[in-house]
Amino acid sequence: MFDAVIIGAGAAGMSCALVLGSGLQKPFAKGKKVALIAHQKSSHLQTALFNNVLGLAPGTTGESILENGKTQLKTLYPAIEQIENEKVLEVSKSNNHFTITTNKNTYTSKIVVVAVGYTNLFTIEGLNKYIEAHPRAATQKNRIWLKNTDHLVEENLYVAGTLAGWRSQFAIASGSGAHVATDILTLWNKGKHIKVHDKIDEA
Ligand SMILES: Cc1cc2nc3c(=O)[nH]c(=O)nc-3n(C[C@H](O)[C@H](O)[C@H](O)COP(=O)(O)OP(=O)(O)OC[C@H]3O[C@@H](n4cnc5c(N)ncnc54)[C@H](O)[C@@H]3O)c2cc1C
């Protein structure tokens, strides 16, 4: 049983995983089991080129972010399990936990974060009831969101990134994933607000 599973390893999913990974070093989160279902084949990052994102060198490709993001996560926060080459087909809830069925395996988790992007090609059974037309995208594009309040779809079920209803900009999607991570850390810290900052050691 995982404590949290993040579905989708694009901008929002990987940002969520990095912040959660850094938070696992806090005493209240010690021993929590977290996984990222690191499917990337249908990420909008595949074809993106970034010149307008603070902190990214102009000309950075989305493709390089997909690869480097997984390496960063593995190197810095190896406690986060990365599940590669699996696509989620269904998410269902019973007895206060979620069952996540992929094309290869079944996992259980207390918390699920859905970060699979906002296209209407969404095919995860069990989540269809939350789908509505995206509130911040051109109507003719048929984008969708999972109806939520502050990223929460229902108890312990979060959505992040463009699928949460945000406009499609890298920084917004990443920020949304980071936001969800701090919400989960705050939940694990019994409601006391949490952020995770590193700082330069003073000699
Ligand atoms: C061509 C292009 C150019 C862009 N240029 C810019 C730019 O210049 N500046 C800027 O700020 N933004 C730009 N963007 C937008 C930016 O890339 C997106 O806003 C951002 O990637 C959205 O992040 P996300 O996490 O919501 O979705 P994505 O990054 O698309 O990630 C979704 C993830 O979910 C995975 N997934 C999907 N279905 C499943 C499933 N069933 N099971 C498991 N995993 C699944 C996908 O494989 C993917 O990894 C551009 C986008 C495109 C397409």
Give an account of the 3D structure.
The chain has 203 residues and is α/β, with parallel strands linked by helices. It has a single domain (2-188), classed as FAD/NAD(P)-binding domain, CATH 3.50.50.60. 23% of the residues lie in helices and 25% in strands. The strands form three sheets. Strands 1, 2, 5, 6, 7, 8, 11 and 12 form an eight-stranded mixed β-sheet that branches. Helix 1 runs parallel beside helix 2 (62-76) and helix 1 packs parallel to helix 3 (170-188). The longest helix has 19 residues, at 170-188. It is globular and about 55 Å long. The mean pLDDT is 96. Flavin-adenine dinucleotide (FAD) binds at residues 7-13, 37, 39-45, 47-48, 50, 52-53, 62, 87-88, 115-117, 124, 161-163, 168-171, 173. Keywords: Membrane, Transmembrane, Transmembrane helix. It comes from Neotamlana sedimentorum. Residues 2-159 form the FAD/NAD(P)-binding domain. The chain crosses the membrane at residues 6-24. GO terms for molecular function: oxidoreductase activity.
